[in-house]
Design brief:
Number of strands: 8
Number of helices: 3
Helix content: 10-25%
Strand content: 25-35%
CATH class of one domain: Mainly Beta
Structural class: alpha+beta
Order of helices and strands: HHEEEEEEEEH
Largest sheet: 5 strands, mixed
Radius of gyration: 27 Å
CATH superfamily of one domain: Immunoglobulins
Shape: elongated
CATH topology of one domain: Immunoglobulin-like
Length: 180
């Protein structure tokens, strides 16, 4: 048995030089750069892949910049989360009543390519603007904008006290017809 194990070790040691090469491993400044240079040859589950011209995307609240709609909440704060290329600088402003009520300067986006910020909302209309810059822009700022409508407290109280005693009390469209 010992003779067979030592034979296998000798064969393995002879095979190693066949597969060993002296190639240099390329160095990249970011995961995104490595992904772009090796598309199809590497797989990294935790990385975020962007379109060629995309640098920032919002993942929470769900924002579709192609559609124009308003996100509605009763909360006075909302956690905004997103993804951005490593090395992106972000500044978030919240405009309420035609003036900037809050300004948040986030840390430079790192290797995880994610960011989040708890933002405070004023009652009713809030315009959220995310200004971002990256070394690829030559110091130019770009921006994304979306709206969040914070319901007034009286609407929240009214909804809490709303009583439904019969199906006719339901708002239109919520009264399902039962088929037997």
């Amino acid at each position: 048995m010992l003779k067979h194990i030592s034979s296998l070790l000798m064969i393995g040691m002879l095979a190693i030089p066949i597969f060993a090469t002296e190639e240099t491993v390329p160095q990249y400044e970011s995961i995104q750069q490595a992904m772009e240079s090796q598309i199809g040859t590497i797989s990294v589950d935790s990385s975020v892949i962007f379109d060629e011209t995309e640098y920032v995307r919002i993942t929470q609240p769900i924002v579709d910049n192609e559609e124009e709609y308003v996100i509605t909440t009763f909360e006075h704060q909302i956690n905004m989360m997103g993804e951005a290329r490593a090395g992106t600088q972000l500044i978030v402003t919240v405009q309420h009543s035609d003036e900037t009520s809050k300004l948040y300067e986030l840390e430079l986006v790192g290797a995880t390519q994610t960011f989040n910020q708890l933002i405070e909302l004023g009652e009713r209309q809030n315009l959220i603007t995310i200004y971002y810059s990256h070394e690829a822009f030559d110091e130019h700022m770009h921006s994304l904008m979306f709206q969040i409508y914070r319901q007034p407290e009286e609407n929240k109280s009214q909804l809490k006290n709303y009583i439904i005693s019969t199906p006719s009390d339901l708002p239109e469209g919520l009264n399902e017809k039962q088929h037997y």
